[in-house]
Structure formats: structure tokens, C-alpha cells
Design goal:
By secondary structure, this protein is an all-alpha fold. 77% of the residues lie in helices and 0% in strands.
């Protein structure tokens, strides 16, 4: 994101310069582009700490209130983030990082389930895995497919699927090794509105660090994300349900981020996803994958209840992703069509 912002600023300066095609100016442009290309991602300290705080914030949003569980979520995400930064130096494989980070989370979470007694222990492995979900790529793929750019849209979609498979593989492998489970409840308690809003802001800051978004450009996504999550909380608390709440929040985010991405000259998908990251149905995706494995292992003894639960989680994930995509893309396409006229 930092590279994109700097490049867009350079393009604006070049276009405003009537002598931009002079040889000496072209040479300066080439040098500045080389400097932009060499810009580092977020520092190791920022990346690791934001991953830890982001996962902990997601745990709070899910209803976790026990200090021990939140501390274990922080520690698990901390270790996973360090592993990701080490692995990027050791391997060019695109999927080894999410696999190893998910494996670490499931191993720690699985052992914790046998050591402690708490209804929210499952989130020790779910929350750190949630921050691995490639939401920005899902939104970009949806945008491309909606606009008929099938080649790049399908490629991006397959990239998302492979990342999700890597996460699920690491998660399920760790659960099998530790005899852990994802079968406990979805949340342990209700989260107050003020705490829900603050946690959503922390989650946005975390994903801003993953995208290497400069600190001075984080203010807008954080404020939008907090407002959107607060609106979702109000809809859910008033009986609207998680699906309607997510749709309304994403339409607000789509409208705000379309305008902000044009003003800040930053990618819409990254800004939009950062603002609604805590609404991604990663927990349903993980439970769906776990249900598939359980049905396979049960074989002929699999029950209708197991199948119904697995299908329910899969449909919930699909519906939420579709509505999130619609809520973000519809305002963007409408606003852009108006501006184009």
C-alpha cells in the first residue's frame, strides 16, 4: 500500500509537469521508481505486534472475555507472525506461511483445550487463523468477475481458495495431532458496544500493518471500520441478524471507501477489506472444513445432524461473503458510474 501510494503521487507529479518527457526528467522518474520498488514492507515489530493485537481484538468481538484465553490468543498470534516473517526469508512458496501459522495456532489451541476449562478456548486457534483470511483478494476477484474480467478474476479466486485450503490444512492437522475440537459455542458472552467498536478499530489497524499502509493513512479506515462495526452491532442487537447487519455495514463501508480510495489514490479492495475485516466468516469456513473431515472419518456412522451442521456452516460462510461483496461493490459501481457521467 505504501508503494502504491508513493507511485500514485509520482504519477500525479509527472502528469502535472509539462516537461515530463525530457530525457533528464525521465531519468529522474526511473530513479524514483527504483526507490519506491525498494521500499520495505511493515517493520517486523509492527507486523508482529499488530498481528497479535488484531487477533486478540477479534477474540473480543467474538465474545471472549477471559483474560487467560485472550492472553493465549495474543501469544499464539505473536508466535505465528514471527514464523511468517522467518519463513518469507527461507521459502518463496506462497502458501507455506498461512499453513505454518495455522498449524501453530491449532497446536497451541488444541493443547489448551486439554489443559484449561473455558467456553472460549476454541478462539485460541480461530482468532489467529482469522487474520490469515485473504479478504482483499476475495473482493478483488469479485470485482473482476462482476466486470467480466474472467481471466484475472478466476486466477485471483483460485489464489484465495488455495490460501484458504492452506489455512484449513494447517488448522485441521494441528487439531488431529492434539485431539482438539471446534465444536464449542460460537461466542462466550455478549460484547458491549463500546468495546466492540474499539476492538474493530484495532483489527483495522492490524490489517493496515499487513498491507504496509502508512500510519498517517490509517485514520480514515479505522474510523470507517469502527462506525461500520458499530452499525452492525446495533442491527444484530435489535433482532436484524448477522446477515442483515453485515450487509448494512458493508454498504456503508463500500460507499465511504469508494470516495476515500479516490481521494487517497489507494486500492479500494485493501481499504475496504481493512474496514470490515472482523466481519469475514472465517469461523464458518473453518467449521465447515472441520465438519467435512468429521463426516469422512465417521463413514457409515455419520449422522444427519453432522451433515446438517456442516452444510449450515458452509451456507452461512457463502451467504455472508456474497452479501459482503455485494455491499462493497454495489456502492462502488454506482458512484463510479455517476462520476463517469
Amino acid at each position: 500500500m505504501n508503494k502504491v501510494a508513493r507511485t500514485n503521487q509520482l504519477i500525479d507529479r509527472v502528469c502535472a509537469n509539462p516537461n515530463r518527457l525530457l530525457p533528464e526528467n525521465i531519468e529522474l522518474i526511473a530513479k524514483e521508481l527504483a526507490l519506491i520498488a525498494a521500499l520495505p514492507p511493515s517493520s517486523h515489530t509492527r507486523f508482529v505486534l499488530m498481528a497479535s493485537f488484531g487477533a486478540t481484538a477479534l477474540g473480543i468481538i467474538f465474545g471472549v472475555s477471559d483474560i487467560l484465553v485472550l492472553s493465549l490468543i495474543f501469544m499464539t498470534a505473536f508466535i505465528g507472525a514471527i514464523a511468517r516473517r522467518v519463513l518469507v526469508k527461507l521459502s518463496d512458496n506462497l502458501f507455506i506461511q498461512p499453513f505454518v501459522a495455522a498449524l501453530i495456532a491449532s497446536l497451541i489451541g488444541g493443547y489448551a483445550q486439554h489443559t484449561f476449562q473455558d467456553g472460549g478456548l476454541q478462539f485460541i486457534l480461530i482468532a489467529p487463523c482469522m487474520i490469515l483470511v485473504p479478504g482483499a483478494h476475495i473482493l478483488n476477484a469479485s470485482l473482476d468477475l462482476t466486470r467480466g474480467r474472467l481471466g484475472i478474476g478466476v486466477s485471483r479466486l483460485m489464489y484465495c481458495v488455495l490460501i484458504l485450503l492452506s489455512i484449513c490444512a494447517g488448522l485441521l492437522l494441528g487439531l488431529s495431532l492434539t485431539n482438539g475440537t471446534l465444536a464449542s459455542g460460537m461466542a462466550t458472552s455478549g460484547t458491549p458496544l463500546w468495546l466492540d467498536i474499539i476492538s474493530a478499530g484495532i483489527a483495522v489497524m492490524a490489517f493496515g500493518a499487513f498491507f504496509s499502509l502508512p500510519w498517517n493513512m490509517l485514520i480514515a479506515p479505522v474510523l470507517v471500520g469502527m462506525f461500520c462495526h458499530g452499525s452492525r452491532w446495533l442491527v444484530i442487537e435489535n433482532g436484524g441478524g448477522i446477515v442483515l447487519g453485515t450487509l448494512i455495514a458493508c454498504m456503508i463501508a463500500g460507499t465511504a471507501m469508494t470516495l476515500l480510495s479516490r481521494a487517497l489514490k489507494l486500492p479500494f479492495a485493501a481499504l475496504a477489506f481493512a474496514s470490515i475485516v472482523s466481519m469475514m466468516p472465517g469461523i464458518f469456513i473453518f467449521k465447515f472444513a472441520d465438519g467435512l473431515i468429521n463426516i469422512y472419518l465417521a463413514g457409515n456412522t455419520a449422522t444427519l445432524a453432522m451433515l446438517t451442521e456442516m452444510v449450515g456452516h458452509g451456507m452461512a460462510a457463502l451467504l455472508i461473503v456474497l452479501l459482503m461483496t455485494f455491499g462493497l461493490i454495489a456502492p462502488k459501481m454506482l458512484i463510479e458510474s455517476i462520476v463517469a457521467k
